[in-house]
Amino acid sequence: MDPDFSPLDDLLEAEDADGYLVDDTSHNSTQKYLSGFEAHDPFVTLYTPEKTILLVSALEYGRAKKQSRADEVRRVAEYDYRELVSEHGPAEAKARAHAEFLDEYDVASVLTPERFPLGPADGLRERGVAVEAEESDRVTEIRATKTDEEIEHVRAAQNANEEAMRAAENLIAAADVEDGTLVYEGAPLTSERVKEEIEVTLLRHGCGLDDTIVACGANAADPHDQGSGPLHADEAIIIDIFPRSKETGYHADMTRTFVKGDPSEEIRERFDLTHEALNAALDAVEPGVTGADVHDVVCDRYEEAGYDTLRSNATAETGFIHSTGHGVGLDVHELPRIASNGEELKPGHVITIEPGLYDPSVGGVRIEDIAVVTEDGYENLTSYPVELVV
Amino acid sequence: MDPDFSPLDDLLEAEDADGYLVDDTSHNSTQKYLSGFEAHDPFVTLYTPEKTILLVSALEYGRAKKQSRADEVRRVAEYDYRELVSEHGPAEAKARAHAEFLDEYDVASVLTPERFPLGPADGLRERGVAVEAEESDRVTEIRATKTDEEIEHVRAAQNANEEAMRAAENLIAAADVEDGTLVYEGAPLTSERVKEEIEVTLLRHGCGLDDTIVACGANAADPHDQGSGPLHADEAIIIDIFPRSKETGYHADMTRTFVKGDPSEEIRERFDLTHEALNAALDAVEPGVTGADVHDVVCDRYEEAGYDTLRSNATAETGFIHSTGHGVGLDVHELPRIASNGEELKPGHVITIEPGLYDPSVGGVRIEDIAVVTEDGYENLTSYPVELVV
């Protein structure tokens, strides 16, 4: 099933533009989404309300014909690209070929993503094509609503994610404690070692990943600290895993907090409160509610318990100091925002809910599930248990 | 030791520009190189002949101060970014903050990489800053010459690469053959399974990677085929591994060709000839020689033996149908080119030499080493043996 591109058609009409142009590799999720094609070198996608056309190198032509969602695939060679390069150099050759390509489809004006490349844009402008970067980032708005197929891709990545979390938890469970430090197979058990276990498990289940967070104690009090060094008993260890399926490109995202040994009463209270905030936020998820509403539920819960939030104190450095969640798809962070500026939730939105509390003197606690908004509420794609003590 | 940025100074002077501006994440190697900083979100680097200044979010400020090679690090918050966003939206807020930032350093005109983002560029132009994408991609030229430290980074990645190649070869060696298909632990040994072994081994040695090629038989006759499905006895299996160190960001690159069982006389001849071509090309590597000269050595060898090359036949689909090699560094493919348009080699260039022969009726054979150009020749960074039969 193809996504609903009508909001893009509306934008083109409102801005009086003939088409939407992307010039990027498929590492750019808007390119991958619009083209339905994966390639490491930049290629061009021209979207018009009538059809989508790809312009690729000869090398990618056969694969693009087979794999992409485009109605037509063209080759730069059809525009005498090699001859143009020898005569004018690669930048001008590209501009000439692209201008001719657009002209063939009667496209004299295009909108582009905000980060469309400047050199090619100026090259087209010099040849009379109107090129305008559009701020609204309409395709990312369209991407927020997932098809059933996309939801299955996220679910598959989340299954791999749970295997990886299990491997991490098992490693921590199997460790001994010596002088307050976790020890495994005769060596201190480090963040790095647990991350390696997570990443190897993900690979074995068809996923890669950019980064993993395994942060312990005071490290974990900074929500952006990736964690390093030996893990300690009786301290909170935050594990946040956000793998990408190598096959589909879709992500999952989940966080758990573990303590090996005996958590302090302070850690336990924060954990229980965070678990309540998670459940309260999930309960609030349904179409028509905004991401801001869901974020407010979490802030309410924390503030009632006496903690700072960024809502109650914009410069807070302890307490709940990030937003409640975000959309997940081809990008690990995408729309909608579950935050003070969060959009209205719609069926098919895939979102995280990830409340957390941070304080250097206590450590960090965060619990994150991933869920899909349904017609009448949500389905939680997470089945991993929420238990503090390993 | 800092790289020699004087060619960039020369360019700025020739083009009468005040600075060189990059707005990208550190996934862009020019950004990583100029800034010496890694961040997943876009940030700004302003290079001037006097100094390099970073403009980052508050979140990255502390880390940028510690880790980057910049002389100064500034925060967008210093330009009332939040207030600007509420008043004008994120795109205009960014343009205003960046324009003010440039003005503070008396920079009224900038050159940028060819793929600088269009929206921010137009935003600066509207505020009177002259912004021009420069075609020569001068920083990639500078990046071609590695410092001793960079060479050590490549060497470390190559060590991990050799461990991964060893793991792959061991897996093929341990397989049985049933009806011509490799079988391991009761299941057909597939390209996918060997890739998994390679990628897990790389992870265990601190490297990630984008892709791996494990291609057998007719698959391997297309140099860009990544390979899939069961591996077969008596057929050539090309394994091409190009990992990236997670710590340093530098790559290595190596290819070997293996046959499990008995290679045909045809495969053996092509393998031996390719090995000779590799050694002849390496022998030709020294400062002052061009990448084109080295490529010619390989073409000579193949053509003398009666094979097509792209030099003798630009549309050849069998024979030696790619270039001889490329630079390796923060990008797995970078300057210099070891190809018909290859640049003059200089001490500190890190290059691959990767001759190969392809024919769907025979399969593919490729052997690739990675080497650094020295004052009087080259040092081969590859120690993995070149042996066909496993």
Automatic annotation (TrEMBL), chains A, B:
<dbReference type="GO" id="GO:0004177">
    <property type="term" value="F:aminopeptidase activity"/>
</dbReference>
<dbReference type="InterPro" id="IPR001131">
    <property type="entry name" value="Peptidase_M24B_aminopep-P_CS"/>
</dbReference>
<keyword id="KW-0031">Aminopeptidase</keyword>
<protein>
    <submittedName>
        <fullName>Peptidase M24</fullName>
    </submittedName>
</protein>
<dbReference type="Pfam" id="PF01321">
    <property type="entry name" value="Creatinase_N"/>
</dbReference>
<dbReference type="InterPro" id="IPR000587">
    <property type="entry name" value="Creatinase_N"/>
</dbReference>
<dbReference type="InterPro" id="IPR029149">
    <property type="entry name" value="Creatin/AminoP/Spt16_N"/>
</dbReference>
<keyword id="KW-0479">Metal-binding</keyword>
<dbReference type="InterPro" id="IPR050659">
    <property type="entry name" value="Peptidase_M24B"/>
</dbReference>
<keyword id="KW-0645">Protease</keyword>
<keyword id="KW-0378">Hydrolase</keyword>
<dbReference type="InterPro" id="IPR000994">
    <property type="entry name" value="Pept_M24"/>
</dbReference>
<dbReference type="InterPro" id="IPR036005">
    <property type="entry name" value="Creatinase/aminopeptidase-like"/>
</dbReference>
<feature type="domain" description="Creatinase N-terminal">
    <location>
        <begin position="8"/>
        <end position="92"/>
    </location>
</feature>
<comment type="similarity">
    <text>Belongs to the peptidase M24B family.</text>
</comment>
<dbReference type="GO" id="GO:0046872">
    <property type="term" value="F:metal ion binding"/>
</dbReference>
<feature type="domain" description="Peptidase M24">
    <location>
        <begin position="152"/>
        <end position="375"/>
    </location>
</feature>
<dbReference type="Pfam" id="PF00557">
    <property type="entry name" value="Peptidase_M24"/>
</dbReference>
